[in-house]
């Protein structure tokens, strides 16, 4: 039963399950290649490239929350902390100490894992909503602390993050524009999707799902629910930090707004709008939301209303998201044919 | 003659399993009807569905009429307001409150319900509660808690009182005491649908009895008929009925 | 200086207490974690300000107007969430209240603008002194209201039918149905009460400093600190912890940069959660 839930989404139609592995792999390769070409197919303007890079970054950011929300069934409201920690660690090390991107990424991961461990351990023995409250408090308080700490750049943040340079065959690859950043962002996104796909099939993934479906039963079956929760939470943090790392280079500065509730609402909506527990859900969600904000923005406050409104309406009208609406429609059409 | 409670063709499903499979039960005014059967026969599921209540998520079909009125679609608190009052199996009182508070928190009935019991009336029925009136229910004995549960049900002015295994877990002497209390209430005019695993005890007080097995009624009759019934005797009275 | 911090801390703590009292009841009764609580506080302040500056109402009339507006809003929000509350879908409840809060913040920014505003309360001009400590009539009002609301809540929960119904639903919502209690109505009453408390806190604490539509996030954290430290549903503990937190904030702000006071309190909370996950004052 758990396996069925976990695989739903990768395989839209039941028939897809019978497709051999090599054909599936080929399909994925074609999809990635298409994604790579997409911005140039859409005209290749700077705006398009900016949008697709942001979609990739925000999707990665959302995958961190997705792992906790969809599979563990708990609400982490502290992932903006990991997002900001990734970006700030990168920016500070790159600007002040001249670190190159890869060591900066490793440092970001270490910092976020430590943060996640701290929050996870503190909430290990508490009731479900305390976890959400503590993570939320950590993010909001993080915002005040960062704003008021000069060592972290205060309310101005840290500016002048250098270009993203990666070692490549015969020299270095320098991402000067969003168009040049796109391949890197896409590779990161693909790696994260692969990681999440792997997680869904892993012992930890199925255990988490089991713990979510029936905590008591899984405890009776010898599953350590607390340990599972801790592991999944700690796994999720560096995913979001990776997005922060990319974002620091994309924007070339970091500021306390990374900790604002806007990004928090974005992550949650990106997971919930398409429907929870879908492998490509957060990507689709990030695509929809980023497109609205980049290409059809109504201004800051109105965009807040859009974001909050979308999340509220989805939860109230169809908590299973767009997929839930789709399944409902399909059922209705089938039903009326009979 | 239309019965006070008329349950027709009730079916209750938990997911794919059918726990109650087309049961019809009637309870007339001033009558005590018992439902007996083995563990898992579907007794609780049946009476919970009659009260519109459950701790799970069952799917219910069929009709439930109280004095001719179709109550089958009403929420449990609305049915309680009309005098269809259930004392569920197991936890039937608020443990965090005192006896007095449990008796007072009951919403007073609206309209057409039966005889209203004041807190004092309840204490007259169960004198033993008088000295425990200020005690938290979590500190009461099983028998006392059952009395509080029945007492708070009386406070709701029931026309039909449904009791789900009120004697479970009680010492034999207390079983007799509780069931005698119930019979007294019936003799005073109340209608009761009683779930009781202990068939012998049920037959002592009931007017009629239905035997439930795997969600279906497999035998019914008056208490006298059922005492003579072979199936009942073999299955529940050890074949050596008194 | 100590005395000044003491008096300031008392006023702060009373404000926190007012903010938290409704939430305590709400979380205890409905297991509903309302992340929009801080935005209801913000609206309490801004509707008061709006009624004064736009319609020229006196402060004493503007506050009740704000309470009514927020109460109506509370009714709408809870009616939207009734299904979820009855199902006790805690995950979705947290998410939807978070969305509501964000929505309210965006709406308030559009409606009231992004500038800081001040609420004109005559009591704020009334300077009083107790030895070396200076405070205002507004501070006295906050303390009086906080104590009054705690007393009221205590009496209602302990002594009235409504209170017994709330406690019954809190203990076992399913069983409450069999007592003839309509859980949905109880949830509605509790939610509206909680919203009104938040709005009142905003309306009376607001005049102490400039208000912004972006405020409210710190307030949720403070509320949550109070409720979790006190132990969920513990009313008296809530009052004590709230006052304690106010004093802590005031004293911390005297010796360290005040911006870090909530952070410091949060660190205390993390330690407490590890040592006593059930809260400081909880019995279990
Ligand atoms: N909440 C529930 N969810 C799923 N199945 C249930 C639930 N409650 C009872 N059942 C099943 O329904 C059947 C009847 O149970 P019940 O009505 O409690 O029997 P009885 O009261 O006669 O002992 C049993 O097979 C039981 O396992
Ligand atoms: Mg039973």
TrEMBL record, chain A:
Gene Ontology cellular component terms for the protein in this record: plasma membrane
Keyword Transmembrane helix: yes
Signal peptide: none
Cellular location(s): Cell membrane
Keyword set, alphabetical order: Cell membrane, Membrane, Transmembrane, Transmembrane helix
Membrane protein topology class: Multi-pass membrane protein
MF terms (GO), sorted A to Z: branched-chain amino acid transmembrane transporter activity
Record field: transmembrane: 25-42, 48-69, 81-99, 105-122, 129-146, 181-199, 230-248, 305-329
Identification of the protein by name: Branched-chain amino acid ABC transporter permease
Native species: Pseudonocardia halophobica
UniProtKB/TrEMBL annotation, chain B:
Domain of life: Bacteria
Domain ABC transporter: 5-239
GO molecular function: ATP binding; ATP hydrolysis activity; branched-chain amino acid transmembrane transporter activity
Database matches in PROSITE patterns: ABC_TRANSPORTER_1, ABC_TRANSPORTER_2
SUPFAM superfamilies for this protein: P-loop containing nucleoside triphosphate hydrolases (SSF52540)
Keyword annotations from UniProtKB, A to Z: Amino-acid transport, ATP-binding, Nucleotide-binding, Transport
Entry-linked InterPro entries: AAA+_ATPase (IPR003593), ABC_transporter-like_ATP-bd (IPR003439), ABC_transporter-like_CS (IPR017871), BCAA_Transport_ATP-bd_LivF (IPR052156), P-loop_NTPase (IPR027417)
Alphabetical GO biological process terms: L-amino acid transport
Family: Belongs to the ABC transporter superfamily.
Name this protein carries in UniProt: ABC transporter ATP-binding protein
Protein species of origin: Pseudonocardia halophobica
Automatic annotation (TrEMBL), chain C:
Keywords: Amino-acid transport, Cell membrane, Membrane, Transmembrane, Transmembrane helix, Transport
InterPro entries: ABC_transp_permease, BCAA_transport_permease
Keyword Transmembrane: yes
Predominant subcellular localization, coarse grouping: membrane
Keyword Disulfide bond included in the entry's annotation: no
TM ranges: 6-28, 63-81, 93-113, 140-157, 186-205, 259-275
One Pfam entry name: BPD_transp_2
Topology class, membrane: Multi-pass membrane protein
Single Gene Ontology BP annotation: amino acid transport
Compartment(s) of residence: Cell membrane
Any one GO molecular function term: transmembrane transporter activity
Annotated GO CC locations: plasma membrane
Protein family per UniProt: Belongs to the binding-protein-dependent transport system permease family. LivHM subfamily.
Protein name listed in UniProt: Branched-chain amino acid ABC transporter permease
Organism: Pseudonocardia halophobica
């Amino acid at each position: 039963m758990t396996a069925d839930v976990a695989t739903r989404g990768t395989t839209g139609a039941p028939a897809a399950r019978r497709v051999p592995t090599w054909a599936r792999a080929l399909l994925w390769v074609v999809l990635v290649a298409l994604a790579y070409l997409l911005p140039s197919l859409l005209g290749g303007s700077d705006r398009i490239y900016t949008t697709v890079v942001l979609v990739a970054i925000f999707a990665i950011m959302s995958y961190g929350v997705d792992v906790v929300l969809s599979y563990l069934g708990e609400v982490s409201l502290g992932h903006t902390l990991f997002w900001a920690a990734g970006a700030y660690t990168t920016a500070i090390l790159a600007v002040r100490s001249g670190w190159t991107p890869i060591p900066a990424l490793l440092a970001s991961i270490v910092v976020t894992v430590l943060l996640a461990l701290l929050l996870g351990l503190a909430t290990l023995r508490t009731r479900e909503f305390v976890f959400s409250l503590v993570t939320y408090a950590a993010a909001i308080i993080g915002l005040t602390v960062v704003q008021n700490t000069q060592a972290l750049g205060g309310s101005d943040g840290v500016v002048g993050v250098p270009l993203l340079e990666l070692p490549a065959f015969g020299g270095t690859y320098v991402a000067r524009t969003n168009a040049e950043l796109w391949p890197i962002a896409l590779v990161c996104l693909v790696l994260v999707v692969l990681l999440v796909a792997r997680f869904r099939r892993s012992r930890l993934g199925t255990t988490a799902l089991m713990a979510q479906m029936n905590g008591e039963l899984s405890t009776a079956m010898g599953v350590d629910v607390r340990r599972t929760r801790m592991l999944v939470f700690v796994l999720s943090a560096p995913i979001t930090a990776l997005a922060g790392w990319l974002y620091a280079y994309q924007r070339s500065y970091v500021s306390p707004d990374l900790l604002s509730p806007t990004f928090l609402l974005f992550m949650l909506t990106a997971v919930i709008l398409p429907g929870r527990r879908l492998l490509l859900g957060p990507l689709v969600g990030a695509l929809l939301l980023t497109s609205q904000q980049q290409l059809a923005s109504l201004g800051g406050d109105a965009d807040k209303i859009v974001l909050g409104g979308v999340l509220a309406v989805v939860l109230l009208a169809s908590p299973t998201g767009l997929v839930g609406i789709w399944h409902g429609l399909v059922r209705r059409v089938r039903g009326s044919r009979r | 003659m239309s019965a006070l409670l008329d349950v027709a063709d009730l079916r209750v499903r938990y997911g794919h399993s059918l726990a109650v499979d087309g049961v019809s039960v009637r309870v007339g005014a001033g009558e005590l009807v018992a439902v007996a059967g083995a563990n898992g026969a579907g007794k609780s599921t049946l009476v919970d569905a009659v009260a519109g209540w459950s701790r799970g998520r069952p799917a219910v079909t069929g009709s439930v009429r109280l004095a001719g009125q179709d109550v089958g679609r009403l929420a449990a608190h609305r049915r309680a307001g009309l005098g269809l009052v259930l004392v569920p199996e197991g936890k039937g009182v608020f443990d965090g409150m005192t006896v007095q508070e449990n008796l007072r928190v009951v919403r007073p009935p609206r309209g057409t319900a039966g005889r209203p019991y004041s807190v004092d009336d309840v204490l007259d029925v169960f004198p033993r509660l008088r000295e425990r009136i200020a005690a938290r229910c979590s500190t009461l004995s099983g028998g006392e808690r059952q009395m509080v549960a029945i007492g708070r049900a009386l406070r709701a002015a029931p026309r039909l009182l449904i009791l789900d295994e009120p004697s479970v877990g009680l010492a034999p002497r207390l079983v007799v005491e509780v069931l005698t209390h119930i019979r007294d209430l019936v003799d005073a005019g109340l209608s009761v649908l009683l779930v009781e695993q202990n068939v012998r005890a049920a037959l002592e007080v009931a007017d009629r009895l239905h035997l439930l097995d795997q969600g279906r009624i497999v035998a019914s009759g008056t208490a006298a008929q059922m005492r003579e019934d072979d199936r009942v005797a073999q299955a529940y009275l050890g074949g050596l009925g008194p | 200086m100590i005395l000044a911090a003491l008096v300031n801390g008392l006023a702060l703590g009373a404000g926190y207490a007012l903010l938290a009292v409704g939430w305590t009841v709400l979380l205890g009764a409905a297991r509903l974690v309302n992340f929009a609580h801080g935005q209801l506080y913000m609206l309490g302040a801004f509707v008061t300000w709006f009624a004064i500056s736009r319609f020229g109402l006196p402060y004493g009339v503007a506050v009740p107007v704000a309470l009514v507006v927020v109460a109506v809003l509370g009714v709408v929000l809870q009616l939207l969430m009734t299904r979820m509350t009855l199902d006790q879908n805690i995950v979705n409840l947290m998410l939807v209240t978070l969305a509501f809060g964000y929505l309210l913040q965006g709406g308030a920014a559009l409606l009231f603008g992004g500038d800081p505003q001040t609420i004109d309360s005559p009591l704020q001009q009334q300077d009083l002194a107790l030895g070396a400590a200076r405070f205002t009539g507004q501070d006295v009002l906050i303390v009086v209201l906080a104590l009054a609301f705690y007393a009221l809540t205590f009496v209602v929960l302990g002594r009235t039918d409504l209170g017994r119904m709330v406690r019954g639903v809190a203990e076992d919502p399913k069983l409450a149905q069999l007592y003839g209690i309509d859980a949905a109505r109880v949830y509605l009453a509790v939610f509206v009460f909680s919203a009104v408390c938040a709005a009142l806190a905003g309306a009376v604490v607001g005049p102490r400093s400039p208000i912004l539509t972006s405020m409210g996030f710190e307030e949720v954290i403070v509320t949550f600190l109070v409720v979790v430290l006190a132990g969920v549903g513990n009313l008296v503990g809530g009052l004590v912890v709230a006052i304690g937190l106010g004093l802590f904030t005031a004293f911390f702000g005297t010796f360290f940069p005040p911006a870090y006071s909530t952070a410091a309190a949060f660190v205390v909370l993390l330690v407490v959660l590890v040592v006593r996950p059930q809260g400081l004052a909880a019995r279990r």
